[in-house]
Design brief:
Layout: E1 2-10, E2 12-13, E3 25-26, H1 29-44, H2 46-49, E4 57-66, H3 74-87, E5 92-102, H4 109-117, E6 122-128, H5 132-138, H6 144-156, E7 162-168, H7 175-187, E8 192-197, H8 205-210, H9 219-235, E9 239-242, E10 245-247, H10 254-260, E11 264-268, E12 273-276, E13 279-282, H11 287-292, E14 302-305, H12 308-319, E15 326-327, H13 328-335, H14 339-352, E16 356-359, E17 362-365, H15 367-371, H16 373-378
Parallel strand pairs: 1-4, 1-11, 2-3, 4-5, 5-6, 6-7, 7-8
Antiparallel strand pairs: 8-10, 9-10, 12-13, 13-14, 15-17, 16-17
Helix pairs in contact: 1-3, 7-9
Bound molecules: iron/sulfur cluster.
Length: about 375
C-alpha cells in the first residue's frame, strides 16, 4: 500500500496579518457554513475529481491548515474528520497523524478539549514571537500571554504532540529578542518547532512599509539569526531534520515529511494542491467558483502531468531539504537510472563548490549549501 497524506485548507482568519500572502480572508460565520458544505462535497467526490481510489493507499496523515482552522467549531472539525474517515475507510489505519493549526487568539480550554475529542492528535500553534512589540508589528491578533495560556490549555486537553511556529528576521528583532522566543518555546518542551524567516511578499502591507527601506534585517543578519536558531535548538535537544524544521527525537512531522519525500497527497479546499500518480493538481483560488463547483475538474488552477525529468528534479530539490538528504540507491530504484548518469556533472560541481557532501551512498547539503539552498536547488531544474 502507498502512503497517502490529506490536506484540508480553511481559508478564513479573524483578520489578515500585515505580512501574510497565504490564501486566506477575514470571515463572517455565514461564509464558513457554505464553505464546509462545499468541502464535504469535494471529499465525498474525491475519487472522480482526482482520478484516484483510496483502497490502494494507507492513510498516514491528515493536516487541517489555513488560514485559521481554529475558527471552526468542534462540530465542523468533526464533520470533516468523520467524512474523511468514511471516504477513506479502506486506507484508514489506527495510527494516523491528524494535525490542526491553531491561532492562540482563537482558542479556549473548551474548544481545545473538543478538538482533541474529535480525533486531532497534533496541534500546530502559530506563535511567531513571544515579544509583544514584534507581534504587534506583524499584525497578529494575539499577544504572548494568549500563547502561553493556549499552550497550557492544549496540554491539559491531552495534546502531547505540539508544534510551535516561530519567525526570524522580523523588523526590529535582535538576537536577544530571538533568544527570548527560543527559550520560551524550548522551556515548554514542545515536540516540534518550525522556524521560518520572514519573506517580504508583494501586495502585503509589509511590502508597502518595508520594500526598499532598511527596516528589515539584511541577508547577513538573517543568516546570523538562522545559525543562532539552529545552534540554540540543537543545544536544547531539537534535531534539524529539514532546513526550517526541528523536532525532539521521533516527533518529525509525518505530513510535511511526506511532501519532501514526494509521497502522494490529496488537497481539499480553496487553492489546495494535490499530487496523485505524478500529476499535480491545484484547486481554483476563486471562492465563488469553489462554492458552486467543488468537484469540477475544469476549474483546476493547475493540472500538470510531471515528466520523468520533472520528477527527478523534484526528487533532488525536495530530498535535499531534508537533513538525511537523497539516497543514491532510492534514486536508482525509482528512476531505474544511476544518479550520476543524470546529474553527475552538477553533483561534482556542487561538491567542489563545498555545497554538497557525498557520503555513504547519500547526498546532503553542507552547512554552506544550506545558506545557498536556492542556488543548489536551481541546479537540478
Ligand atoms: S493567521 Fe496565518 S493565515 Fe491568517 S492572516 Fe495571519 S499569517 Fe495569514
Amino acid at each position: 500500500m502507498k502512503p497517502l497524506g490529506i490536506y484540508v485548507h480553511i481559508p478564513f482568519c479573524v483578520r489578515k496579518c500585515d505580512y501574510c500572502d497565504f490564501l486566506s480572508m477575514p470571515v463572517g460565520n455565514e461564509g464558513m457554513d457554505d464553505y464546509i458544505y462545499a468541502l464535504l462535497c469535494e471529499i465525498k467526490g474525491y475519487a472522480g475529481k482526482f482520478n484516484c481510489v483510496g483502497d490502494r493507499y494507507g492513510l498516514s496523515s491528515i493536516y487541517i491548515g489555513g488560514g485559521t482552522p481554529s475558527l471552526l467549531s468542534a462540530d465542523s472539525v468533526s464533520m470533516i474528520t468523520d467524512c474523511i474517515r468514511r471516504q477513506f475507510a479502506y486506507a484508514y489505519g489506527k495510527d494516523v497523524e491528524i494535525t490542526m493549526e491553531a491561532n492562540p487568539g482563537t482558542v479556549s480550554p473548551d474548544s481545545l478539549k473538543s478538538y482533541r475529542e474529535c480525533g486531532i492528535n497534533r496541534l500546530s500553534i502559530g506563535l511567531q514571537s513571544v515579544n509583544d512589540d514584534e507581534l504587534r508589528t506583524l499584525g497578529r491578533i494575539h499577544d504572548a500571554e494568549a500563547f502561553f495560556k493556549a499552550f497550557d490549555a492544549a496540554k491539559k486537553a491531552g495534546f502531547d504532540n505540539i508544534n510551535v511556529d516561530i519567525m526570524t528576521a522580523l523588523p526590529g528583532q535582535t538576537l536577544d529578542s530571538l533568544e527570548n522566543t527560543l527559550k520560551a518555546v524550548t522551556d515548554l518542551s514542545c515536540t516540534h518547532i518550525s522556524a521560518y524567516s520572514l519573506i517580504l511578499e508583494e501586495g502585503t502591507p509589509f511590502y508597502k512599509r518595508y520594500a526598499g527601506t532598511d527596516g528589515l534585517p539584511g541577508e547577513e543578519k538573517e543568516r546570523e539569526m538562522y545559525h543562532f536558531t539552529v545552534s540554540y535548538l540543537k543545544e536544547h535537544g531539537y534535531k534539524r531534520y529539514e532546513i526550517s524544521n526541528f523536532s525532539l527525537p521521533g516527533y518529525e512531522s509525518r505530513h510535511n515529511s511526506a511532501y519532501w519525500k514526494r509521497n502522494d497527497y490529496l488537497g481539499f479546499g480553496l487553492g489546495a494542491s494535490s499530487l496523485v500518480d505524478n500529476t499535480r493538481y491545484k484547486n481554483t483560488v476563486n471562492m465563488c467558483d469553489y462554492l458552486k463547483h467543488p468537484l469540477s475538474r475544469d476549474l483546476f488552477e493547475e493540472n500538470i502531468s510531471l515528466s520523468e525529468r520533472d520528477r527527478m528534479a523534484e526528487h533532488m530539490f525536495l530530498g535535499l531539504r531534508l537533513s538525511e538528504g537523497v539516497s543514491e540507491e532510492e534514486f536508482g530504484k525509482e528512476f531505474e537510472k544511476e544518479i550520476d548518469e543524470i546529474y553527475g556533472r552538477e553533483l561534482s560541481r556542487l561538491v567542489t563548490e563545498g555545497l554538497l557532501l557525498r557520503d555513504g551512498g547519500r547526498i546532503r547539503l553542507t552547512e554552506k549549501g544550506v545558506d545557498y539552498g536556492n542556488y543548489v536547488f536551481s541546479r537540478f531544474l
